[in-house]
Design goal:
The chain has 95 residues and is mainly alpha-helical. The chain has a domain of 38 residues. Helix content is 37%, strand content 4%. It has a two-stranded antiparallel ribbon with strand order 1-2. A hairpin with a 2-residue loop joins strand 1 and strand 2. Helix 1 packs across helix 2. The radius of gyration is 29 Å and the shape is elongated. It starts with a helix and ends in a 7-residue tail after the last strand. 1% of the residues are buried.
Length: 95
C-alpha cells in the first residue's frame, strides 16, 4: 500500500504532528513500508502457534510469600488522634 504525500499530511494533521515539507516523501515511504509489513504479517498462518506471554519463553522467578513485618497496629493506633473500635476517626470532608 503506497501512501501519497497528501495522505501523510492528513495523518500528521490528525495526529497533531508538525512535519517539514521536505520530509513528507520520506515519511510516505517509511509508513508505506510499515503498512506493507503489517499486510505480510497478517497473511501468515498462525493456526498451529500457541500464544506466549514472553518471546523468550522464560519463567518468572517469584519470591516466597512470607511475612516480613510484624503486626504494629496497636503501636500506630496508640499515637493516632482519634480511634473507635479499632478504626481511625477522621474529620468529615463531604456534606
Amino acid at each position: 500500500m503506497m501512501l501519497t504525500a497528501e495522505e501523510v499530511k492528513k495523518i500528521a494533521y490528525l495526529a497533531r504532528l508538525g512535519i517539514d515539507e521536505k520530509d513528507v516523501e520520506t515519511y510516505a515511504n517509511d509508513l508505506s513500508s510499515i503498512l506493507d509489513l503489517m499486510t505480510q504479517m497478517s497473511e501468515t498462518c498462525t493456526d498451529d502457534i500457541l500464544p506466549m506471554a514472553h518471546p523468550m519463553d522464560q519463567i518468572q522467578r517469584l519470591r516466597p510469600d512470607t511475612v516480613l513485618e510484624s503486626d504494629q497496629r496497636e503501636n500506630f493506633q496508640s499515637i493516632a488522634p482519634q480511634i473507635d473500635s479499632g478504626f481511625y476517626l477522621v474529620p468529615k470532608v463531604l456534606d
